[in-house]
């Protein structure tokens, strides 16, 4: 019950800011612990993210980022790193710096896509231009 309630508090803003990724992880943990409400919340959250990411609308880029994060880890959805790359690419294209960073990491490591250091550098640069500090750190590292 603790994971479920904490996950809900991340979704409704009772924690500092809304954090769908934290909520997904907590709902997943609740589900693994046989909390049916946790499984239901996980499913609803993933469906909502997928709908907004697919259809667009306000904050669709951050929804694609969070869905990509869930897909990359197999939390409530099938583990699919190629699909995660596509979702991060969509988030990056929507101006989400974390999406650019995650895409760059996947490209640099060759996960879900062929290893491509040049494409990774482009993704990190774009993330840095969007004020994402970890992307800027990767740019500085070269």
UniProtKB/TrEMBL annotation:
Q: Which family does it belong to?
A: Belongs to the hcp beta-lactamase family.
Keyword rRNA-binding: yes or no? no
What's the protein name? Tetratricopeptide repeat protein
Keyword Cytoplasm included in the entry's annotation: no
SMART domains the UniProt entry points to: SEL1 (SM00671)
State the superkingdom: Bacteria
Q: What keywords appear on the UniProt entry?
A: Repeat
């Amino acid at each position: 019950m603790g994971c479920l309630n904490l996950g809900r508090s991340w979704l409704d803003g009772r924690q500092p800011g809304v954090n769908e990724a934290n909520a997904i992880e907590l709902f997943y943990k609740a589900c693994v612990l046989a909390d049916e409400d946790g499984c239901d919340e996980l499913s609803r959250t993933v469906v909502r993210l997928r709908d907004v990411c697919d259809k667009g609308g306000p904050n669709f880029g951050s929804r694609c980022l969070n869905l990509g994060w869930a897909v990359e880890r197999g939390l409530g959805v099938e583990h699919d790193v190629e699909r995660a790359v596509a979702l991060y690419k969509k988030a990056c294209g929507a101006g989400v710096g974390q999406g650019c960073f995650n895409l760059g990491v996947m490209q640099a490591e060759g996960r879900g896509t062929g290893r491509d250091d040049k494409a990774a550098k482009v993704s990190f640069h774009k993330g840095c231009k969007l004020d994402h500090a970890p992307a800027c750190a990767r740019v500085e590292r070269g």
